[in-house]
Design a protein that fits this description.
There is one protein chain. By secondary structure, the protein is an alpha+beta fold. It folds into 2 domains: 52 residues; 57 residues, no CATH class. The two termini are 17 Å apart. Helix 1 packs antiparallel against helix 2. It contains 2 helices and 5 strands. The strands form 2 sheets. Strands 1-3-2 form a 3-stranded antiparallel beta sheet, with no helix packed on it. Strands 4-5 form a two-stranded antiparallel ribbon.
Length: 125
C-alpha cells in the first residue's frame, strides 16, 4: 500500500457537529417543550407519534464545535484521483467518514470538497 502525505484539514470557521438523542415520551406528556431544552441547550428536531397511542418519540440535537484533527489514508490510485478530480470540478466530491469514540458512540462526518482541491489533485497526478 502506497501512502501519500498525511492529510491535515485546514481549520474552517464555524464548523460544528451535532449529537442526536431520542426520547420516548409517555402518553399525555407536556409537549410544549423538549428534553434538555433549558439544561443542555438542545435544539428541537422533531417529534413523531408512536403506534397504539404509545406516546411520542422526540428527537433533539446538541451542537458542539468540531476540533481540527488528522487523518492518514492510503494514497488513491491515479484512476481514483482522476475520478475525484472530475467530481471536484463538478462540485460534487463528497465523502462520509465513519468513526467511533472511546465511549462507543459512532460519528458520521459528511465532507464536501471545495473546488480549489483540483489543483492539489493535479499535483498528485
Amino acid at each position: 500500500m502506497t501512502r501519500g502525505p498525511p492529510t491535515t484539514p485546514t481549520p474552517a470557521r464555524n464548523i460544528s457537529f451535532a449529537t442526536f438523542s431520542l426520547f420516548i415520551e409517555r402518553p399525555g406528556a407536556n409537549l410544549n417543550g423538549w428534553p434538555g431544552k433549558n439544561a443542555d441547550g438542545t435544539a428541537f428536531v422533531g417529534r413523531i407519534p408512536l403506534a397504539a397511542q404509545g406516546g411520542t418519540c422526540c428527537v433533539v440535537a446538541v451542537q458542539q464545535p468540531l476540533e481540527p484533527g488528522r487523518l492518514d489514508l492510503p494514497r488513491p490510485t491515479n484512476d481514483q484521483l482522476r475520478q475525484m478530480r472530475e467530481l471536484a470540478v463538478n462540485g460534487t466530491l463528497m465523502t462520509t467518514i465513519i468513526g467511533e469514540f472511546g465511549d462507543g458512540a459512532i460519528a458520521l462526518i459528511d465532507l464536501r470538497a471545495d473546488p480549489s482541491i483540483v489543483a492539489t489533485i493535479d499535483r498528485a497526478l
